[in-house]
Amino acid sequence: MTAKGCSYNGGLCHETVETCNGCNRVQEFSAGWYCTACPEPSLKWKNGNCNLASHVTMEKTGAKQKINPLKASKRARK
Fold first, then answer.
1. What pTM, to 2 d.p., does this model score?
2. Is residue 34 a contact partner of residue 13, using CB atoms and an 8 Å limit?
3. Above 80 in pLDDT, residue 17?
């Protein structure tokens, strides 16, 4: 959505969903609140978090990497 209007789906952009509240990309236009990056925000939130959301932080849930004790002892001696 821009000031000139929407160019998505024949000029029909969808309003933001509740989960978009707090995002930097949400702007108010005369017709309502729209996302400036995505014309249909509900699709972005369908399978989890929106990848364009500026108010959502991703947490790393990766397990610690296994360290080879033999290589670790050789590195420690240096």
1. 0.60
2. yes
3. yes
